[in-house]
């Protein structure tokens, strides 16, 4: 069996027109197609997504989920009836003592909504009335890589398309001179934990690779080879690409391999990015008061603050999905020192991004998501006399959402008195995936791709739209 031939036979109408959209006639073709052929199944509430993924798992009970019972029982064993025979990481799997640990910094109420936010995050608290807090998330994975993979691809095993790739496939190209899907990474300056950014977090899996995220680097030029080699001007580059495209089209006719279309499209995008990316990264047009909102780190390439402002500039110019991943939230032994550092590095830039989008009239069309792959244990890892931290906790965690058709100034779902289990309006990663797609006008059950004899979707065979999050 020839896999290239088999793959060409499996091309769906949506994939065919998705590839065609990369060519000159894409816009004309798109206007003639029914909405379903481009993945739109109902009127969208937003156009863009900025996902501020906090790698390592922020502690929900320290940041957002106020639990007075934990503080009242500080140091006492968390009840066995709560813990039962739950699975934790190997770092506390054999730990017999599980003393309650209340929030290490007071949480207080902010805004008219009265949302509870840690005092470590005053800027997030200041925009609480613009946010929708989801406090009943829970997942199946207890370690970082499988949990993030599950969150971003719908499966804990690598190989499936990421969320941004599904959106590129379902909705088509969003702009001509910048990528539809961009990924950026950052980490705490202290390098306090060893989180790894795997390429499959923004990969295309079995979808045509034209849909994978374009990784912007944190130093130097965001993408390599923006400048022509010495002695090669733009006209020569254009002539070379035209000849190369003709050779690739001959190869496409001969092999029927759709990846050749990707090659042609990416060469063309790279050529246009030689002009668009320098303009994107030239911040001379940014007012000083806007830069000040993001904090002093906004001028440091590769920082979370820098990437947040870059995300706003990207969606402003047509990029559909921007995935920011910031590592450093893995406080197993350094909770009392590193949590404050993480909050300081991410609080102002996250809030500034929301306010910046709102002031420019972009928040209504842009969904901003802030959260990690799971939460952290309401009990102490370690001892009160030694190193103090919290272990991974998949049974409950908190995100916040802003803009993009979500219900501002609300809190959805709840955990038990210890912050241990999501008990009210429980939400899974598949539910969140279904809801994000819904906000973009996509029915998660109808956006599918045939691969190896079956049809796949982002939400696998699960997921429901969480109506309580919608405005």
Q: How many domain units?
A: 1
Would you identify the CATH architecture? 3-Layer(aba) Sandwich
Strand order of the largest sheet: 6-5-7-1-8-13-4-14
Helix proportion of residues, in percent?
A: 25-40%
Q: How much β-strand is present in the residues?
A: 15-25%
Q: On the 0-100 scale, what is the average pLDDT?
A: 89
Radius of gyration: 23 Å
End-to-end CA span: 50 Å
Task: Name the shape in a single word.
Answer: globular
Number of strands: 18
**Which stretches of 5+ consecutive residues score pLDDT under 50?**
1-37
For the biggest sheet, the summary is: 8 strands, mixed
CATH class, please? Alpha Beta
**Which structural category do the helix and sheet elements fall into?**
alpha/beta
Describe this structure in words.
- The chain is of the alpha/beta class.
- It has a single domain (48-214, 287-469), classed as Alkaline Phosphatase, subunit A (3-Layer(aba) Sandwich), CATH 3.40.720.
- The protein has helices at residues 3-9, 13-20, 26-32, 60-63, 68-72, 80-83, 122-126, 144-153, 163-171, 234-255, 259-280, 288-294, 304-316, 335-359, 429-439; strands at residues 48-55, 107-110, 115-118, 131-137, 181-187, 214-215, 321-327, 366-371, 375-376, 381-382, 388-389, 392-393, 397-402, 410-412, 414-415, 422-424, 449-451, 454-456.
- It has an eight-stranded mixed β-sheet with strand order 6-5-7-1-8-13-4-14, with helices on both faces.
- A hairpin with a 2-residue loop joins strand 17 (449-451) and strand 18.
- Helix 10 (234-255) packs antiparallel against helix 11.
- Mean pLDDT is 89; it is low at 1-37.
């Amino acid at each position: 069996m020839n896999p290239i031939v088999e793959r060409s036979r499996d091309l769906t109408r949506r994939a065919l027109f998705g590839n065609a959209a990369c060519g000159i006639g894409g816009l004309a073709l798109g206007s003639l197609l029914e909405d379903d052929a481009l993945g739109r199944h109902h009127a969208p509430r937003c156009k863009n997504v900025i996902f501020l993924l906090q790698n390592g798992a922020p502690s929900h009970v320290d940041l957002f989920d106020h639990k007075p019972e934990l503080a009242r029982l500080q140091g006492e064993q968390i009840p066995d009836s709560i813990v039962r025979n739950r699975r934790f990481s190997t770092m506390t799997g054999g730990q017999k003592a599980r003393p309650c640990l209340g929030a290490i910094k007071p949480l207080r109420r902010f805004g008219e909504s009265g949302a509870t936010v840690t005092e470590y995050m005053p800027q997030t608290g200041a925009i609480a009335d613009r946010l929708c807090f989801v406090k009943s998330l829970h997942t199946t994975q207890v370690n970082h890589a499988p949990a993030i993979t599950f969150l971003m691809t719908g499966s804990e095993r690598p190989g499936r398309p990421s969320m941004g790739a599904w959106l590129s496939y379902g909705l088509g190209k969003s702009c001509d001179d910048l990528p539809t899907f961009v990924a950026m990474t950052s980490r705490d300056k202290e390098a306090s934990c060893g989180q790894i950014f795997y390429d499959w977090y923004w990969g295309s899996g079995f979808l045509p690779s034209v849909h994978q995220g374009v990784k912007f680097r944190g130093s130097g030029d965001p993408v390599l080879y923006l400048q022509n080699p010495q002695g090669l001007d733009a006209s020569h580059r254009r002539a070379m690409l035209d000849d190369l495209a003709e050779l690739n089209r001959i190869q496409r006719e001969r092999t029927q391999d759709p990846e050749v279309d990707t090659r042609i499209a990416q060469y063309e995008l790279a050529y246009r990015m030689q002009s668009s990316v320098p303009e994107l990264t030239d911040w001379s047009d940014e007012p000083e008061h806007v830069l000040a909102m993001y904090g002093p780190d906004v001028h440091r390439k590769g920082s979370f603050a820098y990437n947040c402002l870059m995300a706003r500039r990207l969606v402003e110019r047509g990029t559909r999905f921007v995935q920011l991943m910031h590592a450093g939230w893995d406080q197993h032994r350094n909770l009392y020192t590193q949590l404050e550092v993480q909050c300081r590095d991410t609080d102002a830039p996250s809030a500034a991004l929301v306010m910046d989008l709102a002031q420019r009239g972009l928040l209504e069309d842009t969904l901003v998501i802030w959260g990690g792959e799971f939460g952290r244990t309401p009990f102490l890892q370690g001892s009160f006399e030694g190193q103090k931290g919290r272990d991974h906790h998949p049974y409950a965690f908190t995100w916040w959402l802003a803009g993009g058709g979500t219900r501002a100034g609300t809190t959805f779902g709840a955990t038990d008195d210890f912050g241990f289990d999501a008990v009210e309006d429980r939400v899974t990663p598949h539910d969140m995936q279904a809801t994000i797609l819904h906000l973009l006008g996509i029915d998660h059950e109808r956006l599918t791709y045939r691969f190896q004899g079956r049809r796949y979707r982002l939400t696998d065979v699960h997921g429901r739209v969480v109506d309580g999050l919608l405005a």
